């Protein structure tokens, strides 16, 4: 089964195509599948994303299925990620299933995750994953943040 088999099967989803001659500056959101052959400078949120060989994305991707043949600079959060042999990816991958073909370029961290819920595919949730850590219930800048873990251990009798 080729990596494209799960993308584009008769699922009833709407398909959108961003052609090679189109450059989008800003976030792209779709409730269906996107075939991207052009350029996007912004985040992409959709159900399924196919990046063509000449595509270029500078931003984060959140989708269920992602197939990359082109260039992506940014993170990917998806259920299934496929980096095909022509792909060039610089960024972190979070996935349930990952396939990397021989010849693909990948520079970043990859880690498996639990299932994506519908709420994780919103822009607000993506931004929340980048927020500062919380210490003692309040946000503090990284420079002043203290990593203090205090645990009381009962003394032996």
Helix content: under 10%
Computed structural class? mainly beta
How far from one another are the termini? 65 Å
Q: How large, in whole angstroms, is the Cα Rg?
A: 19 Å
Percent of residues in beta strands?
A: 35-45%
Largest sheet: 10 strands, parallel
Overall body shape: globular
The H-and-E topology, N to C, reads as EEEEEEEEEEEEEEEEHEE
Q: Compute the number of strand runs.
A: 18
Question: What is the residue-averaged pLDDT?
Answer: 78
Query: Which spans have pLDDT < 50 for at least 5 consecutive residues?
Result: 1-10, 117-152
Count of DSSP H/I helices: 1
Q: What does this protein structure show overall?
A:
The protein is mainly β and 157 residues long. It is globular. It has one helix spanning 123-128, and strands at 15-18, 23-25, 28-29, 33-36, 39-41, 44-45, 48-51, 56-58, 61-68, 71-73, 76-83, 88-90, 93-95, 97-100, 105-107, 110-112, 134-135, 138-139. Strands 1, 3, 4, 6, 7, 9, 11, 13, 14 and 16 form a ten-stranded parallel sheet that branches. A six-stranded parallel sheet has the order 2-5-8-10-12-15, with no helix packed on it. The protein has a two-stranded antiparallel ribbon with strand order 17-18. It contains one helix and 18 strands.
């Amino acid at each position: 089964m080729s990596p494209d088999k799960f993308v584009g099967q008769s699922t009833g989803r709407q398909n959108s195509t961003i052609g090679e001659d189109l450059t989008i500056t800003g976030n792209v959101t779709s409730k269906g599948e996107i075939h991207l052959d052009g350029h996007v400078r912004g985040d992409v949120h959709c159900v399924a994303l196919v990046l063509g060989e000449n595509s270029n994305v500078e931003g984060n991707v959140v989708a269920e299925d992602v197939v990359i043949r082109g260039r992506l600079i940014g993170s990917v959060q998806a259920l299934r990620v496929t980096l095909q042999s022509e792909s060039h990816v610089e960024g972190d991958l979070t996935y349930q299933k990952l396939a990397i073909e021989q010849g693909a370029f990948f520079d970043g961290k990859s880690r498996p995750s639990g299932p994506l819920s519908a709420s994780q595919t919103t822009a607000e949730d993506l931004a929340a994953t980048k927020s500062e850590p919380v210490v003692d219930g309040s946000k503090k800048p990284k420079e002043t943040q203290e990593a203090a873990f205090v645990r009381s251990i009962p003394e032996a009798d």
